[in-house]
Amino acid sequence: MPDRWPDLAVLDLLTAVGTTGSLGAAARQVGMAQPNASRALRGLERDLGLTLLHRTPRGSSLTPHGLLVAEWSASALEPARRLTLACEALRTSSRGQVSVAASRTVAEYLVPSWLAALREERPDVQVLLRVENSSEVCTEVLSGETEVGFIESEHVPRGLRHTVVDRDELVVVVAPGHPWARRRRPLTPVELAATPLVTRERGSGTRETLEARLGRLEPVPLTPAPPALELGSNDSVRIAVASGAGAAVMSELAVRESLSTGTLVRVPLAELVLERRLRAVWTGSGDLRGTGRDLVQVARNAGRLRSRRPTPDGAARR
User: Fold this and answer.
1) For residue 147, what are the CA distances in angstroms to 114, 135, 150, 173?
2) The HTH lysR-type domain covers which part of the protein (predicted)?
3) How far apart are CA 234 and CA 232, in angstroms?
4) Could you tell me if 232 and 252 lie in one domain?
5) Going residue by residue through the chain (318 aa), what tens digit of pLDDT does each one get?
6) Helix 8-20 to helix 234-242 angle, to the nearest 10 degrees?
7) Phi first, then psi: what are they for 164, rounded to 5°?
8) What is d(CA 14, CA 32) in angstroms, rounded to the nearest whole number?
9) Domain of 101, in residue numbers
10) How far apart are the C-alpha atoms of 272 and 249, rounded to whole Å?
11) Residue 284 contacts by C-beta under 8 Å, 6 or more apart in sequence?
12) Do 66 and 194 fall within a single domain?
């Protein structure tokens, strides 16, 4: 047993440094005063015996050791977030209950607002949420462990009913110092497929969507090169890309803030449409009922509202 467990709040701060590119921005993101944030990270470095940040007058960035620890931290923080959600559900005395599984992208960037809207309509409701990749979500719904799932993958397994609740776009992103950040012509599918990318694990909807779209190109289907890095969460991929590990194809939802702050740069892509449908899935011979139906309707309404808002580049979503 370790003498002292790392503080989850400090690990969250460390991952935020990789996401935002600076200690000040990371402190604001997690709601911590910057002097306290600086002391907390120095304490973490002292406890671990590692230098995690490269500090300069222009800001702080993750060292190679910092990148690894941030990646591992993202994996540790995810079950902690699930624990928090589960405890919140336990505090709710409910007359309605629904078990929900959601892919990581959907769970991180859409489900919180859906649950808040559902709670306004149904303050008595209890939602038990599991966060998995899209393949695992489908498996849980098919097995009966979960009543309704939300996925981002192209393929819906046989035996599942489904409906579209929202749409999302995948974008190519790199760090500002990457050669692609300065290119003047759009990236071609052949160039993208030939480049080892920082990717999510197999079974993730993002990875499946990219592989499927490249594989359907005409006249010559393309197969992506083996990954440069294979990581288990959006946070890990984003941190790795921002730290210079390579390019990635990610959900626009996952990188919107990083694009607006300049931590990541979007690379234009030619001849390849990467918009995808986000779906609710369930089993049975008919439509969902009760709380599950209400949650799917909330998600669908939220999707309609998002479709009317402009994207970060000023264009309307289709």
Assistant:
1) 16, 15, 11, 35
2) 6-63
3) 7
4) yes
5) 456 788 889 998 998 887 777 888 888 888 889 889 999 999 999 988 999 998 877 777 888 888 888 888 887 887 787 777 666 555 544 456 789 999 999 998 999 999 999 988 888 788 889 999 999 999 999 999 999 999 998 889 999 999 999 999 999 999 999 999 999 899 999 999 999 999 999 999 999 999 999 999 988 999 999 999 999 889 899 999 999 999 999 999 999 989 998 999 999 999 898 999 999 999 987 778 888 999 999 999 999 888 776 554 444 444
6) 50
7) -80, 130
8) 12
9) 79-167+277-307
10) 12
11) 161
12) no
C-alpha closest to that of 81 among 12, 10, 7, 5: 12
- Asked whether residue 89 falls in the same domain as residue 147, the answer is yes
In this prediction the pTM is 0.68
Instruction: Say how many domains are in the chain.
Output: 3
Name the burial class of residue 273, with classes exposed (0-12), middle (13-18) and buried (19+) by CB atoms within 10 angstroms of its CB. Answer: exposed
Any idea which residue has 């050791």 for tokens?
65
Q: Are residues 202 and 301 in the same domain?
A: no
Domain annotation covers residue 313? no
Find out whether 237 and 199 touch, Cβ atoms under 8 Å.
yes
Measured CA to CA, the distance from residue 246 to residue 267 in angstroms comes to 13
* Residue 269 and residue 190 share a domain: yes
Interior angle at CA 256, CA 297 and CA 108, nearest 5: 45
Distance between CA atoms of residues 61 and 20, nearest Å: 9
229 and 88 within one domain:
no
**Does any domain span residue 191?**
yes
Q: Which residue's structure tokens are 């309704």?
A: 148
- The identity of residue 21, as a single letter, is G
Residue ending a domain, choose from 48, 76, 104: 76
Q: Which helix (H) or strand (E) holds 103?
A: strand 96-103
Residue listed under structure tokens 């590990």: 245
